[in-house]
Structures
1.
Amino acid sequence: MKLAALPRCGRLGGLPGSATCPALNRSIGLLHATAMVVGIIVGASIFVQPTEISRHVPSVTGMFLVWVLAGLLTFCGALVCAELAAAFPVTGGVYVFLRQTVSPALGFLWGWAMFWSVHSGIIAATSVIFARYIAWFAGFGDLGIRITAIAGVLCLSGVNYVGVRPGSVVQTAITAAKILGIVLMLLAVALIPHSGPAAHGGLTVAATTPAGAPGIGFREFVLAISAALFAFGGWHMVTYAAGETRAPDKTIPRALLIGTLTVAACYLAMNAACLSVLPLDRVMASRHVAADAASALVGPRGGAAVSVLVIISSLGVLNGVILAGPRVYLAMACDGLGLRWMSAVHARFHTPHQAILAQAIWASILVATGTYRALFTRVIYTEWFFFALMTAGLLRLRFRPSAPSTPARRAFLYPLVPVVFIISSLAVVANQIAADPLESAKGLLLVAAGLPVYYLLVRRQGSH
């Protein structure tokens, strides 16, 4: 695949806000952008992922090391993304970064994978998590869960259809509610007397590996990091709405750094709280570890309160992901690399309304058919493969100091941070593929299927 040095607006079309693509309202400030970062990352997974991580790393010390390393890796990715966002402060995010610094084909493949697999799959799966916890209170079955999940997708898509400001305000409110809920849970653990995970010795006793648990190998440790990275997922999505962000070259980097540090602190505190209440073997066996910890602390009402918190967190993720995705499809359509009607911006609401509708319909189909389960497992290795390529693009941009979009300032500890991030990302990808080669092959074939579509679109562009 030939690497092309591209001008800022791309050789295949214009970026949103240029002469060939209508402008979007810049109504997202630092508070809303930071809320978007935190709101998308802090989802339902933090309330269940400690169990998955403990199965790979059956040690409290090992679990905390996994969370710290995953947080550091996410922070490195945020530094890379922040630098690229300062260089390309326009709608499209990772799609634009790949297209401008590596290859238009790779940018297209990212958007292709987003729509058909990664992004829409996250919307579908998150909506089902939301619906299942609603069903915990309402008592309806699988059909009711699917109907509720689709209703959630359509309602929040409607909120974002009528304007980015309503969507970002909803995001800020939900994020504030979930952070408040987490803080209250941490205060309850700190203030309410309890016997601890082993009734003597607390975390010291729990820190040992349970009897009969397997040893911790390198492969299991990396799989645990992958599980933690899933809980940190979505940090990059704020860059998709750069075209609607005020002073995006400054606002987005600040939001990324503040948001990822806030999330890392919340995650470490949440794990400490759960492990101070439950013994490690119970954490390993639990399907709802945070709810179990709350129930052990204050009884069934505590579990119900955490279930409400999971619902709120799911709504935050769902709203943020629904807001972010259509901006990528809009940018691709403006470049001639998508359906032309996806470049439409609503005359009154100034939103990519047709891209929002397309995303809502496809995500609802995934919910209705249940195929989101297979798609959801492909999120980590697909995303982090492209993150490695994105970071390579930043290094390539640095080797072209005369390029008009070269960032004025280098990221912290450059080039150590980008190099470490590339190596770590590829290690995560390789380990995930080795753990499930058949499913990985399906996911990679789905991504590769976009390549002939790309060349067909390029040929169509050349014929006009």
Note: The chain has 19 helices and no strands.
2.
Amino acid sequence: MAVRRIYRGERIKVLSFNIQAATRTRRYRDYLLHSWKQVLPHASRFAALEQIAHAVQPFDIVALQESDSGSLRSSYVNQTGHLAELAEFPYWTHQANRNVGEIARPGNGVLLRRQPAHVVDHRLPGRIPGRGALSVDIATEQGASVRFVALHLSLGAIARALQLDFVLSELQTDQPTIVLGDFNVGRGAREFEAFIERSKLNVATGNAPTFPSWRPESALDHILVSAHIRVIEAGPLPLPLSDHLPLAMEFELQ
């Protein structure tokens, strides 16, 4: 089978989505009243995955955060693989980041409609382990590749700064690059602004709020792009299927 490359002028659709392990949260009190859903299986989780699969199906590349790797709460189903099957993605990769016994195994995942040329599983630094980034390269017509770095950063500013420094050390500025995911921080934060300045990446999605999904106030999710990427359209989708709204972008190579 021939490798499907990314061609100059071809429009590619990308999505970043923190799916909260397919546990729908519609209001703040749900965190308390439905907290049991974070540790126990329930029938509505598979219905939620079907809705998420429908939402991600139009996209070429999907970065998932808080996708369970296969534990008690997910009925021992790897949610990334399950979504790939439901949404008919031929390729997928998954990174299990934290193992809370048999109860929960959150991680990052990437769904792809093109075979990746290279995948690297990065463990991000931090006082509390359990954060990661997936680096995925997809070949271009010029024989190079576009690098997608899908990540989920920590809640604390010190840990985020260490993690962003690590990500920066892994970026190759001479290739088209897209960094996307749940940064757990918005524009104006010192560590985030320093990363943007040093990486020379542009924030394609501005400071669009994505959290909480029922009344977005905080811009925690972002898609950053290098100068090689021409953004056609970008922004959150009004799909309250998690406590975060998904972020979508359509782009082409310069």
Note: The chain has a mean pLDDT of 90.
3.
Amino acid sequence: MIPSSAPASVGPPPRHFALRIALLFCAPLIVNGFAMPYFPMWLSTLSMSDFEIGVVLALPMFVRVITAPIAGVIADRLGERTIVLIWSGFLSLATALVLFYFRDFWPVLVIYTLQSAVYSPYVPIVEAIALSGVRRWGFDYAHMRLWGSVAFIGATMLGGWMVGIFGSDMVLPAMAIGFGLTIAMAYAAPRVGKPRRPSPITALTEPPPKSLKQLDLQLLLIGVTLVNASHAMLFAFSAIYWQHIGYSGTEIGLLWSAGVAAEVTMFIFAKAISRRFSVWVMILSGCSLAVVRWIIFPMDLGFSGYFILQCFHAFTYAIMHTGMQHKLVERVVESQEASAQGLYFFYTGIFTAILTFLSGYFYAWYGVKGFYSMSVVAFAGCCFAVAAWYLQPQRRGSGGKTSEAS
């Protein structure tokens, strides 16, 4: 999906670059594999209300949109970006250890928000280092990134097994071990020097270029990121709901792993799919199936039904995201790549934070039927995407050529 063409005269790559980047992706995604499904379950053991759980999960997302670009600027201006990775790992581990000593809403909210602030730049900076390898030496991004998803699946499965044995008390120790791995991998990360191009999150600190202000492209970005954000209630409350209806930790881990495995499979075949289907088919099919996914979720599906529904993630995220990336490559010149990705990150972060906060209300009021609200959000995103399709320059008689502004 990301072209790999090695420019001339850049010198040899660091030793074992691809292996070290693959391991560097694994460490933070091990943390995420423990935290995303099971941290909400740990919060539910603290006698927090569904609304309070929504606040604890949502506020860090708002903070992340601010702190990640600032850290990105610092990383891009330093002679070596791995310095920020090391600091991020150490500070994240420190907040994880402090969290052991608190159980009340306000302290947990403050500490978890601080953890999100210091952890937020880790994955984007790893992405930036990996892309430096793609641009300078022609490494295959997908093959490096794939191992991070494998690590996420492994952590999710291991976490589910551990929840079955130790209960939700295993969450904080597992996250702390994961943060320890981020420190170790930061020290082992390849040093590539100062970047030749800004990181996508750094671009958020500057106004977007004119090409990104085109109405159809803005509508498409809003539509796709709304559909991305409609997953907020799944991330916040699915594990709590599945535990409530009697699924074991191992079964919950399998359900989460099914979604990620389907996503990875779709990414593997995305290149072949993009040759056969148009970008708009990819995007609109993902948007439409998201509406269907959240309408079906509240039904009594049984474990096998939820397993199949989780595989919808291949469409409601992976294929739609791939189509969005193709559209950005098509419509935005290479020099504005970072700005385009930064805006995509910003919209996704803001919408997901808002909907995570609201999902606390919806789940508290309606239980699992609150997922119907996510279908409404996905439908709104679908409408924005259709409007973008209708307003694209090709349909306005521009001879099939898009307009790119410098």
Note: The two ends are 24 Å apart (CA to CA).
4.
Amino acid sequence: MYVEQANPIRQVAKTYNARVPNLLDLAYAIGATLTSPVWGLSLWRTGKWRTDWRGRYGHAKQLADHPGKTLLFNAVSVGEVNILRGLIAELTERDPSLRIVVASTTNTGYQRAVEIYGPRYTVVRYPLDFSWAVSRFLGRVRPDAVATVELELWPNFVEACARRGIPLCVVNGRLSARSFRRYRRVRALIGPTFGRVAFAAVQTQDYAARFEQLGAKDVRVVDTMKWDNAKIEDDVQGSAELAAELGVDLTKPIVVAGSTGPGEDRLLIEELPEGVQLIIAPRKPEWFDAVMKACPGAVRLTSVRAERQDDPAASSVPTQRSWGADDKRVFLIDTIGELRKAYALADVVVVGRSFLGLYGSDVMEPAGLGKPVIIGPHHSDFQDTVDAMRVAGGIIVTHDPGKAMRELLNDRDKARQIARAGRAVIAQRQGSTKRHADLIMAMLADHRRPEA
């Protein structure tokens, strides 16, 4: 009987690899302890401490044996969850036996994933990157492959996948200049994580260069799937009902401000032209109350719905609102997943997180609905898409939203021209979802599940 001789070099390597996650766990624990006053206060102030802590510790649903393969998507928040819709549909059409699991980190992302995918697919909470939480999570979900959206590469998770022979890829990859600068400072530590990625399907050549500099070996430029998710259509189901709920007057001009950031609500309310209605949908729930402070007379969607629950007889009657001569006609969408309905009502759309020093938001969804779009000068997270639309004349980039709103509302021909140009760019750039699906299907075909 053959007995393998002990190899001291291999033994040292095994011992080192086994200890690396533990050292990282220690670093996480120390960092969390030192910064606990900051993040603890933030969790308490925003209410985010009310979360699925068991899920964050890796207690995902134990999945049963499955004859086909299991593909796990990691989508950190609402935007990443939304972008997977077309890709998941494409993959399951190609392989009906493929089991899809969607993991999300944030509370809003998880809620959105349940809403979109819950009836058909499994939705779980993505674990904290402690080795024990990751190990428990992977043992319960048992994926054959993992696709992480945009960037989300956590060292312990990637290492655990490598140990189990689970290929991991990046889809719709994005690495901004500011994130790249941070990663580059710790390249010696983060490089092995990037190096273990099976492939990175990224949006632009600039992103590809950054992934490669950080150690990724197989990087493909396939554009962004957001072009495909920007459906070109004129109407959105439920938009008329939303207008009726809020009491929006469809005979008067409507500006919709989507994904706004702190302070932009006040800026837009102050700049609102006379006689124009403003629908505001902040990017994050913790920013909802600021709109009411900036405009105490605003109509709040959840309040309207609560009043109707108290009076069921009024549930089918449109909200009536008496406005004074000097009142600002402002409506607050303080829910998740209804911004598209609001966009469908707009004469002009202002895309937020772009006027006061943040990094922009998605401009493609309102453009796909045929709306003239305004965005501020700070949009580095969406630089490529904004540049493409600006070159084609399909968007207005400005530091003065009030002036741009008045210009488009007063010159409807110009507004229609911008809307048509924006749609044309979207139509020209679509196709990334199918390219992503090709890469993922090839990865799954090459993977052989380890023997139990």
Note: DSSP finds 22 helices and 14 strands in the chain.
